[in-house]
Each structure stands twice: as C-alpha cells, then as structure tokens.
Amino acid sequence: MRKWRCIVCGFIYDEAAGLPEEGIAPGTRWEDIPDDWTCPECGAAKSDFEMVALDEASG
C-alpha cells in the first residue's frame, strides 16, 4: 500500500488506513478515490497530492 502527501499542508493519506471518517474504507487505493475529493485538512485538490516513499522497516 502507498501513501500520498498533500503538497500544501503535508497531510498524509495512507491507503492501508483509508479515511473512515471521510467515508473511505481502509485499503482504498488512491486511484479509487473520487477525483473531486479534497484534502480534509486544507481543502486542496486530489491533484495537489504526491506519492511518498516512507520507510517501513520490517523485522
């Protein structure tokens, strides 16, 4: 699963966690989020997000 960061405010969307409070179930892929969705923190458009590579150390 990937993570996406709002380039305006830094909010992170985590595909694994989803955003249940926004009606987006855990496991929802970025591609499956509606194009008119906006950042819950600052209202930026979906196009204002960029994929981020975060270290997920295992074991």
TrEMBL record:
An MF annotation (GO) of this entry: iron ion binding
Pathway assigned in UniProt: Hydrocarbon metabolism; alkane degradation
GO BP term (any one): alkane catabolic process
Binding site for Fe cation: 6, 9, 39, 42
Pfam families cross-referenced by the UniProt entry: Rubredoxin
Boundaries of every Rubredoxin-like domain copy: 1-52
Lineage: superkingdom: Bacteria
Cofactor annotation: Fe(3+)
Keyword entries, A-Z: Electron transport, Iron, Metal-binding, Transport
Family annotation (InterPro entries): Rubredoxin, Rubredoxin-like_dom, Rubredoxin_dom, Rubredoxin_ET, Rubredoxin_Fe_BS
Cofactor note: Binds 1 Fe(3+) ion per subunit.
General function of this protein: Involved in the hydrocarbon hydroxylating system, which transfers electrons from NADH to rubredoxin reductase and then through rubredoxin to alkane 1 monooxygenase.
Family that this chain belongs to: Belongs to the rubredoxin family.
PANTHER family: RUBREDOXIN, RUBREDOXIN-1-RELATED
The protein's name in its UniProt record: Rubredoxin
Taxonomic path: Bacteria, Pseudomonadati, Pseudomonadota, Gammaproteobacteria, Chromatiales
